[in-house]
Amino acid sequence: xxxxxxxxxxxxxxxxxxxxxxxxxxxxxxxxxxxxxxxxxxxxxxxxxxxxxxxxxxxxxxxxxxxxxxxx
Length: 72
What we know:
Helix content: 40-55%
């Protein structure tokens, strides 16, 4: 989950309800309005690369978890 704390499965299951409001938001961004600030936020975590020792920080890579609508 991203910073909005919405699980992708929830978005998929409620797509019939959420598609129209999301479409309006997307259209407003195309008209020149800005993207919602919440969609720009990300939770950053470290993932082990499966190489080397876990105590060495160079063996991890950062991953940004962003909200699904922000990715669209």
